[in-house]
Amino acid sequence: MKPEFTGRCLCGAVHFNVTAAPVVVAQCHCDECRRLSGTGHSIGAMFPRAAVQIEGEIAEHSYQGALGATVTKWFCPRCGSPIFGCNTRAPDHITLPLGAFDNAVDLSVQVVIFERDRPHWDQLGPDVDRFDTQPDWTPD
Asked: Which residue in 20, 42, 65, 101 could disulfide with 7, CB within 3.0 to 4.6 Å?
C-alpha cells in the first residue's frame, strides 16, 4: 500500500495530495525559514515532485539559498500559508511544510539543518508552563 498524505492552507483555497513516502523530513533554522515560518524554524517533508498534486491558486517568491541555488516558495495568495518550496539543486523534488498536513502522525524529524543559526529561544525548558488548549488568559 502506497503512503498517502493530504493537506491544505489555512483558508482551504489550496489543497495537496501526496502518493509517496518522504525522502527526508528536515527541521531548518536558516534565516529564510525562520522568517517564512515566523518562528525559530520550519519543518518540511521532501517528496518526489511527480508524487505531489496541488490544487488551487498559488503565488511564489524566489531567493538565493546558502549554496547559491535558487529557492522558490509557493504560498496561498488569500491567507499567506506556505504550501511548498523547491530548490534548483533538487529540481525533481518539492518540500511541503508539516504544519499544512491533515495528518502527519507517521512523520518525524530526521535531520536538523542550520543548527548553528538556531535562536536560543527556540527550545522549551522543563520549567515552561504547558496547556493542552488555549488558556483562558488575557494580558493585564
From this structure: 101
Tens digits of per-residue pLDDT, 2-43? 779 999 999 999 999 999 999 999 999 989 999 989 899 999
Q: How far is CA 134 from the centre of its chain?
A: 23
Nearest residue to 49 via CA among 13, 85, 100:
85
| pTM to 2 decimal places | 0.89
Measured CA to CA, the distance from residue 84 to residue 100 in angstroms comes to 9
- The DSSP element (H or E) to which 34 belongs, if any, is helix 31-37
Distance of alpha carbon 121 from alpha carbon 21, whole angstroms: 32
pLDDT digit string, tens, across residues 82-121: 999 999 999 999 999 999 999 999 999 999 999 999 998 9
| Rounded to 5°, angle at Cα 95 from 62 and 3 | 160
Contact assessment for residue 7 and residue 15, using Cβ atoms and an 8 Å cutoff: yes
**Cell numbers standing for residue 31:** 534565516
Report the chain's C-alpha Rg in angstroms: 16
Q: Does 52 score more than 90 pLDDT?
A: yes
